[in-house]
Design brief:
The complex is a heterodimer of chains A (284) and B (315). With 284 residues, chain A is of the alpha/beta class. Chain A folds into two domains: 8-126, 3-Layer(aba) Sandwich (Trna Endonuclease, Chain: A, domain 1), CATH 3.40.1350; 141-278. Chain A has helices at 11-24, 70-80, 100-109, 146-160, 164-189, 205-215, 228-237, 251-278, and strands at 33-34, 48-51, 57-62, 85-92, 113-117, 123-126. In chain A, strands 1-2-3-4-5-6 form a six-stranded mixed beta sheet. Chain B is α/β, with parallel strands linked by helices and 315 residues long. Chain B has four domains: 1-84, Conserved hypothetical protein from pyrococcus furiosus pfu- 392566-001, ParB domain (Alpha-Beta Complex), CATH 3.90.1530; 86-167, no CATH class; 173-263, no CATH class; 268-314, no CATH class. Helix content of chain B is 58%, strand content 9%. Chain B has 14 helices and five strands. In chain B, strands 1-5-3-4-2 form a five-stranded mixed beta sheet. In chain B, helix 1 (29-42) crosses helix 2, helix 4 crosses helix 6 and helix 8 (176-192) runs parallel beside helix 10. Classes of the chains: A alpha/beta (284), B alpha/beta (315). The A-B interface holds A 4-10, 35, 37, 42-45, 63-65, 68-70, 73 and B 26-30, 32-33, 36-37, 40, 67-68, 70-74, 163, 166-167.
Amino acid sequence: MIFTFLSPPLHPVAELARDFFADSWGLSASRFRSEVRIDQKAEYCPTLSAETNDNHILCVDVSDKIYTPSLDDFVLQCMNNHLPVKLFVAVPRDAADPDYRANMRKLCDRGVGLLEVGDTGSRIIRQPLSLSLATLTPIDLTKFPLKYREDLQRAEQLFRDGDPVKGCANVLDVIEARTRALAKCAVKKGWFRQNPAFDLDKHSWASVLKFMQTHFDQTAAKCPALTDIFIAQLIGVTPHRNEVSHPPKDVRSRTRRDAQLRTNFEHAINVLTDFVDHTRAVRL
Amino acid sequence: MDNLSAELKEIRVELIDRNPENPRILFRQDELEELLNSIRVYGVQVPIAVYKAGRRYVLIDGERRWRCSKKLGRETVPALIQTAPDPLRNLLLMFNIHSLREQWDLLTIAMKLPRVVLLLSGELGREPKEHDICERTGLSRAVLRRCKLLIELPQQYKDQILEELHKPKAQQRLTEDFFIEMERSLKTVWGVFPQLLRNKDEVRRVLIKKYQGNVIKNVVHFRLLAKIARASKVEVDESVIISSLSEVLGDNHVDIERVYEERFSSAYNERDLVSRISTVLDALSRLVPDEVDDELRQELHKLVRQASQVLEDAG
């Protein structure tokens, strides 16, 4: 491989890193390119890059430090453009980074992975996040009742760790559980102008919400903000509940999908936050 | 150098090639990363210099800036486009540009000198002398001689230096300076006692081992080795010199500095003192009585007292 920037003593490290990923990720060595841009929207040229079998872009930057400031812009560009990049920094085993602690923290904060390379073998010290998923706005768990926090935290973790569909589904599970609970409470307390003639646990979620939209008496329930317009927002997220995780067929599809899923997730959280707020008067 | 026709424009990074005559072949990672970060924040502030070669451009100055721009994925870089030089001028341009910059890696310059000599011979019609090379390359005579010492090293040591030069400067141990000092001292020993250097490579191996093992603590101690070899000038017995050199050049824990201090420093100090006394006597002989002020009178009295005491103690 030809390197313009990488200094010669680190060339063997790059080759060993490439061989490691070729073996462990099932990528042929010929797939790897050296020091090229991976996308028009990301300017930096990582030491190595290759498309993975699941349509991510594996990027490996070889250095004798575990993090360099020049990666900051690249990471940001990937995140902002939802590029499904998994970025590793590959360092020689005997590298001595004088700013190890600070650089490790930066690595973790930015979702970058770390590969330690040696003649007798290489190992992943830290797995990266897909940068297309790493910019998810963290959930402010303090806005939610205690009993939902673990589920929401798990949802966020699932999303960041590479299963955004499941992460979204988990948030929607929480919304569905809370809205069905409200509906059952409304029946008990007589907050419906007309009682439903179907089972609130078994009937489709969208139908339950549509019924609420027409018959829910927000004045009686002391939830004035739970208007039919707001319930329409709740109805709007229901189609995402049953989204199936079809693997994207190429990098571009994955980029579009990850961007959409991030929007869906954050929107669902916003809707849930509002719903919790609007139903504070009700003990669910 | 004719730069009157230089044109400043943004040129595509991918159209630029490195100059094959650039003596600089080593680009330390830590230095490149520092420049990379600077260019990332501030851009390329000083245009690179290139000349046109067909549809492409060849670097005259700015290879590091070019490499960093490529790494950052920049599409263009600001460049001053100059007239294409002939091969000799191209080579000499490299030397002269870089001679104004930070400290060079001497060995990489040394490796280009044979080509300078070849091209200069063609132009001059004769073998260039030292002053020809210095004048045309911008190198000082001292630097040129240091380069010659390096180029004459066996290949394994040149390879060793090149490997070392890749490390950040603070981590380099077997540096060019080390080999230069060692070779200079061995030249002196060879000149006086060639029988002690029948196996020069073995001697080098031993000295390198001693330096890496911190028996020889400083590269400047090799100058003491040269002084030991020339100690007959200060009337040290030849047998003492030979036995000391044998010890110092042997595979053991004997340190040059200690041997010099124990067996040779007093002889050299005495010679230095005699030389300084001579200088003072000479100055005194030219002194006019009117020039003797109070301060000088005081110092002269001190000198007389001190000298008398030394002579009395010496019996």
